């Protein structure tokens, strides 16, 4: 990908032009990041208290029995939002859809294991595990092949 930046006093506001021959997931991610400047905060409910969640601490977010939870190590914190809304908020933090009910943090993945039905079992640094549906394996593999984004403490 080629990037051109033109800093000039003649420009009154930033303008971004993307020239391409096709729409790709990479472009979708770029647009999400650009629009994500005014990121929303994520709040969870834990022990009847509202807590502010740091996306960099979350291993994955999942829905179960019509509720949505963030898995942070051994903690499961309820989030009062729809999974697709959380997916948009977390996209700039290198989260991707793992399945219909799971969004995972690519920065927290430790290793993969192929399961008997073609899904991938993902193990996180925290020891938690989750599954990637076959439908989402290729996009995740492509993102990881591009290098993803290392997390702040330097581990992948």
Automatic annotation (TrEMBL):
It holds the Pfam family LytTR. InterPro entries: LytR-like, LytTR_DNA-bd_dom. The keyword Transcription regulation applies. PROSITE patterns: HTH_LYTTR (PS50930). Keywords: Cytoplasm, DNA-binding, Transcription, Transcription regulation. The keyword DNA-binding applies. Residues 43-146 form the HTH LytTR-type domain. GO terms for molecular function: DNA binding; phosphorelay response regulator activity. PANTHER family: HTH LYTTR-TYPE DOMAIN-CONTAINING PROTEIN (PTHR37299:SF2), TRANSCRIPTIONAL REGULATOR-RELATED (PTHR37299). This is LytTR family transcriptional regulator.
């Amino acid at each position: 990908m080629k990037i051109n930046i033109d800093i000039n006093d003649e420009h009154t506001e930033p303008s971004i032009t993307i020239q391409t021959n096709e729409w790709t997931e990479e472009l979708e991610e770029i647009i999400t990041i650009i629009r994500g400047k005014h990121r929303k905060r994520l709040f969870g409910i834990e022990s009847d208290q509202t807590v502010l969640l740091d996306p960099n601490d979350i291993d994955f977010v999942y829905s179960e029995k019509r509720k949505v939870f963030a898995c942070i190590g051994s903690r499961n914190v309820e989030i009062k939002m729809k999974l697709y809304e959380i997916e948009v908020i977390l996209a700039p933090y290198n989260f991707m859809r793992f399945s219909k009910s799971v969004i995972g943090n690519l920065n927290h993945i430790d290793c993969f294991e192929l399961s008997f039905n073609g899904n991938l079992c993902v193990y996180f640094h925290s020891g938690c595990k989750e599954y990637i549906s076959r439908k989402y394996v290729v996009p995740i593999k492509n993102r990881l092949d591009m290098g993803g984004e290392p997390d702040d403490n330097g581990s992948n």
